[in-house]
Amino acid sequence: MSGSIVLALDQGTTSSRAIVFDDKGSILGSDQQEFRQHYPRPGWVEHDPRDIWETQRNTMEGALTSAGITPDQVAAIGITNQRETTLLWEASSGRPVGHAIVWQDRRTADMCRRLKNEGHEDTFNRKTGLFLDPYFSGTKIRWMMEHHDGLRGRAENGEVLFGTVDSWLVWNLTGGKVHATDITNASRTLLCNIHEGSWDDELLAILDIPRAMLPEIRSCSEVYGKVDQDLPLKGIPIAGIAGDQQAALFGQACFRPGMAKNTYGTGCFLLMQTGETAIRSGNNLLTTVAWSLNGKTNYALEGSVFIGGAVIQWLRDELQIIESAPRVNELAAGVEDNGGVYLVPAFTGLGAPHWDPYARGVMVGLTRGANRGHIARAALESIAFQSADLMEAMAGDAGMPVKELRVDGGAAASDLLMQIQTDLVGVDVVRPRVTETTAFGAACLAGLAAGVWDQPEDIERHWQPEKTFHPEQTREEAAEAMRQWRRAVERSRAWIEEDDDAS
Ligand code: ADP
To answer: Would you say the pTM of this structure is higher than 0.90?
Structure first.
């Protein structure tokens, strides 16, 4: 066995991908396959676990072909995945019990409300850093137990197993030999005490979930098992696992407390590393495990923007004022400033730090001279304003400033958006050369365990900036812009009156 090549599996919400990295962090080849989304009822989102495994298996082979390498050149496999998505399967046959319930699925909203009314929110928040929200895995497992006959007894006997997507992949890769997860994925289930790094009996009792069905919690960088004899990559160690946002934080080399990354995709995900202290947020942010490595656990604060790049898709698909996403930049660059126009894209309510499910989108400050350029500009600015709100909340909670913001995701390609962002937050915004930070993070975690790299510092050398954006506005100008934005946010709040529309 040789090796300085690492294969990263990036199992996402709409597609499975595999990327081959060399020991300098360069991409040698990749492959991607989309799979079917199931929407059986309004608010429900499901995946067929067999689709997840099949597309992932296919892309593993496709990526090697694309890189022109053979399996024996691969030193290790790293996994990163869509978080919170919940799967159950039979231990004896590996057969899935129904479809996976995807993180976006809202079917357990009532259950969450009931648990809150019973006074459990504080217990969950203190131990898990999360809130009682359908997003997380715990209530999804409970729902499956309540809706499949006889499941509870079988789960108690260890005949039916639970896993997030990482566990499911490890189980299948090892031919059913290993039932494990990593601490970052475990930290998104509502069942894991993030301070102790273990499943919590009190939380399991509240949700009535048997311990026997849960995977073993492991670190993010160690050998979990080897690929089964019947698969083409047989014998290769699986050596790194992290949830997608945590993998991106690692892949952005945010190794010191106070370092942060923001991913500008459909939504935005901002994570700030806070060292070995788990900081409880006073601003509706989540506390989560960043990674656990060499016996040490690092934590992060996490906040998300629900409508990030999606506001640009809205300009394209609904307003139809641009033909393609990149066109937004030309349109916005055609005006001097926003002309007093503010767009608050609270299409599905507002996330942290405002947290208002009853908010809806507004556009304010329109005058007779307002044009498409101003609206495009206001849309781009809305992404940066929402991220700036999160960053300020984070810095407040952590009691330390963010020193620079590292960026990735599709909309980070916009130089104009990045300049607006650095102006608002007053620190450098840095876009790396390798923007596949999620897959790179998984590759790094695996490569560290397999000896491709000795320590995180080796990886830092391979993280290189492509472009750094420096603030050009004064802090007074930025404060004034933020003040106007917050006035606009106030206009969007508490718009929906019906309780049911906002669950
Ligand atoms: P996801 O992983 O959530 O599907 P991506 O990271 O692929 O998202 O980013 C896609 C988003 O980026 C889209 O919402 C799109 O509007 C936006 N986007 C893509 N290219 C640009 C660009 N050049 N300028 C601004 N926004 C862009």
So the answer is: yes
